[in-house]
Design a protein that fits this description.
single chain; 65 residues; alpha+beta; 4-stranded antiparallel beta sheet; 2 helices; 40% strand
Amino acid sequence: MRYEIRVEGHMSETLAKAFPELGHVVMSGQTVLFGPVMDEAHLYGLLARCRSLGLRVLEMRPVPE
């Protein structure tokens, strides 16, 4: 399944490297991380990574393949 995770602010390229399995795009005060999520454990791991990096998650949603 593919997911989008929207975080507040513009994420630097250096910070985006903390999510090598995801693509990202910066737009209108947010960064959208997107890509495949293997299972629930992977999803929770991504959210934990966001939290540990001080990122504020605004939205998380599955997207059609």
